[in-house]
Amino acid sequence: MAKKTVATLQTSSKRLTKAIKMVKSPKTGAYTFVESVMPPESVNDWLKGN
Length: 50
Prior knowledge:
By secondary structure, the chain is mainly beta. The longest helix has 6 residues, at 43-48. A hairpin with a 6-residue loop joins strand 2 and strand 3. It has one helix at residues 43-48; strands at 3-11, 14-24, 31-38. It contains 1 helix and 3 strands; from the N terminus they run βββα. It starts with a strand and ends with a helix.
């Protein structure tokens, strides 16, 4: 499973990070990309989940 932090975004006073991970579909076996914007502290937890 590929894991990568793509960008660090700043909006007003909050620092946010956009993270993308590749997830294999249990039905078809094809890979899809899941994107999420979150605080930098929670990126590792999000990548370990699912």
